[in-house]
Amino acid sequence: MIDSTTANPLEGPGKGKAFFDRAKAVANTGNFDYAIDMYIEGLNREPFNMDEHQALRETGFKRKLAGAKAGFGLLGPKPPYKGKSPKEAMLNAEWILAKDVGNRSAMMTMTRNAAILGLPELVMWIGIMARENNRTDKYPKLDIYTELAEIFEKAGEFDEASKCIQAAIQLRPNDMGLHSRAKDLAAQETLKKGKYEKGEDFKESIKNREETKELLEQENLNRSMEYRVKILNQAKADYEKNTREVQVIAKYAKALRDMDDEEHENIAIDMLTNAYAETKVYRFKVDLGDIKIKQYKRNLRMLKDAVSADPKDAETAKQYQHLHRELMQFELGEFRERAENFPTDMAIRYEFGARLFSTGHYDEAIAALQEAQNSPKHRVEALHYLGRAFMAQKMVPEALDTFRRSIDEYDLSATGDRKARELHYWYGIALQENGSTTEAIDIFSKIVRWDIAYKDARQRLNDLRANNPT
To answer: What's the rounded Cα separation, in Å, for the pair 217 and 236?
Structure first.
């Protein structure tokens, strides 16, 4: 979290007052652009000042009502800072938002960086604004809802995160992953409320957490099963009345999948196979593939647990490896076909590219991932896999540039979270392969400072220093 008592003499409570006063004065004369610049300068010194964030937002609306356009020109906006730090990136986005009050991209950039800076009030204010902006847009984006949910969840705002996931479910009602997220968030919100209602202190909360969670999960399981059976019976009755209606078939298939057992899934497989043969609606083919992938993964988990329980069981380990290869090939075929049927869907293109990479089809993977990097949701992951595909083809300079871009594109790259460590790790390997020893040492040193046990980063760092003493 930003420390308002920082030693930086230009930042802290009251440090932005002169700029805020000037902003209000010039705004009253109608000079809104200059007022916006002054607010940004003030917020650079007091990024935690919510009153002034809101005052800047109001100034942006007044500017729009006065008839002013965004006015960014052919070369796009020229914000006040270089944007190298999270604070600068946040303020640049806020500057853009003040001049283009409905800019979703700017809202999201503000939210991401406010989260990095540890400004919870600002995260809630701008994050909720971004969610509502997305909801009322003619073309709401699923990835905005899911990203906001993740940010809210990390901030402990489970109810707001749940609202984002519920909105995402409206866009993709058959996505079981979203339904599972919704249940998890509801459970976390219940635990959070229970803690506050009981007036527990932190230690007491930790002590009772596991017991409470176990009871809650059991209660939710019973309610969920009763609800799922009810929905299944209703969907089945509708289906038996009309076996060719697309929406009725889809609803019944979803109800069968939601039972989460192989018996009902197999009924769904038979029904969807027949429905696709009769109607040629490709949606049924996709649902069919998703169920089979789910079954593959369930069986893989069972085999993996068996191997963990008895590592000496060579036959079970062999079965696990065989089934894993079978799943990879099945997924590759599925996403190849989906990419052919939905050539402009970059999310599918990313999934296809990832499977191509995993199965060693590096040239094809490079082509698919170069397209997939245009997907805002998957850009970072697409660049990461693209860099690794270049590495596999011994194209080290291309890999270096691509890994560097993946880090630049990831808003949380400076935090050292799981994804940041992975991105830096492969960048370090590419630097090492390129003979850029000093830079590789810097990268592996950064990883070790984040997590000394991360993969073989410590060993690589020691080897590089031993072979290149300064």
So the answer is: 28
